[in-house]
Design brief:
122 residues, alpha+beta, Translation Initiation Factor IF3, four-stranded mixed beta sheet, globular
Length: 122
């Protein structure tokens, strides 16, 4: 009996931290092109997100790769007492979900929840 379904990989912050930005983008695209849904423990920087979108656009093929769907929790400012004392403006990135556009559809998103529908490849 062959099990059918969608593979979802949970990627730790440590695994992504080991990679250079270009490697990270390439890794995500390769995994998503193979049909996987990725949940990144720590989101991407705005520059990495832009690079991911740019590279994805060059790979879209009407008869094959349909692109990506990507959702992240909104960033949070560092509002800790320590951060305020140092007047440090640090933006922390949060969890990101990335998958093939034809398999992942965002239904609802707010500051603390992403609701998505996963569908099998057609």
């Amino acid at each position: 009996m062959q099990m059918q379904g969608i593979q979802m990989d949970l990627i730790s912050e440590e695994k992504l931290a080991e990679m250079a930005p270009v490697e990270k983008v390439r890794f995500i695209i390769d995994e998503v092109r193979s049909g996987k849904i990725l949940v990144l423990e720590k989101g991407l920087t705005p520059e990495e997100e832009a690079s991911l979108i740019e590279m994805t656009m060059t790979l879209i093929d009407p008869d094959g790769f349909t692109g990506i769907e990507m959702e992240s929790y909104p960033s949070k400012d560092d509002t800790s007492i320590f951060g305020k004392l140092l007047k440090k403006h640090t933006v922390r990135t949060r969890l990101t979900v990335v998958g093939p556009a034809d398999q992942l559809k965002t239904l609802k998103k707010d500051r603390n929840m992403i609701s998505a529908l996963l569908s099998a490849h057609k």
